[in-house]
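[Meeting: bench + compute handoff]

Bench side (C.D.) handed over the final construct sequence. Compute side (W.E.) agreed to return the predicted structure before the next meeting so the bench team could plan truncations. Sequence as handed over:
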Amino acid sequence: MKKLGIGLLVLVLIGVAASLLFQEQIGKRLFASAVEKAVARDVIGDLPDGINVALCGSGSPLPDPTRAGPCSAVIIDGKMFIVDIGGGAVRNLGLMGLNPGATEALLLTHFHSDHIDGMGELMLQRWAGGGREAPLPVIAPEGVEVIVDGLNAAYAADVQYRIAHHGKATMSLTGAGGAAQPFSMPEGQQEMVVYEKGGIKITAFSVDHKPIAPAVGYRFDYKGRSVVFSGDTVKLPIVAKICNGCDLLVHEVLNAEMVGTMETALEKVGRKRLVKIMADIPDYHTTPVEAAQTASAAKAKMLVLSHIVPALPLDYLDAYFMKGMNSAYDGPTVLGKDGMLFSLPANKDSIGQDDLL
């Protein structure tokens, strides 16, 4: 037995030595294999006809190692629409196999920094990776013009650098940056169609995120399937009204009890400014139970929670975050995480779920 043990130890040591000796060659092969697999991946092309929703960012302004800033990708008929674009979300798109070059349009719910701070990167990646001849359409309430113009100015030098380096044949002279497409609700109305083409209809509706105004949510309709994004808002009847039996309701949430715990901890260490901020933020968001109540009133087929406040770095915290929801809504509820994919096949009732990360 002793000899056998020594023999096994020798074999292990030989294996370790060989792996170290040939580390460069093994690494080269592993890298080449991973690259081939990554560039051949075509998630968009493999998706079923219908509405497909991917969470490219389910977080908030609060630091969360597991979540990028607010971002949802809606893929329909090979076209990708992005709803809000928080920090880190564009890199998530790449990791998820969703080419930013396929982006048809960016839709913004409002202009809080955490909803727009990935715009510059999305514009760049769409132009560089998509070979686009026209800038990224940015559909949003009035006021978006200033933001888009500012980003175009900020990236102007970068655009010229890349054209000079890669050439006009590779980097289109006309495809960089964004093009604002502002809208405003007609007087006396709370909703309006902001995009309608190829059977895809997108409806914007007003929500309450005061003092931030305007603020909207969006509903997508295509071939008998529907998805509603609440945008940042307090609990509001119009969200249920717009959903009205929708297949998927993606609703923002803030757990006020957990934020209160953070407020108390900050008070103890004398961080007065952050205490004030923690005290303020619950009054313009929706709690998980309120989101469940909205889903129930709306008769939503499935509720997905996103824009998670506060950060939930451990899955063990999920049950505490969602406390009380089961008694308010009896449909399926999903606590959103980056990389989640929901597929709604055309003219059917099913909702498939997958993970792209």
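W.E. noted at the follow-up: The two ends are 46 Å apart (CA to CA). C.D. will use this when planning the next construct.
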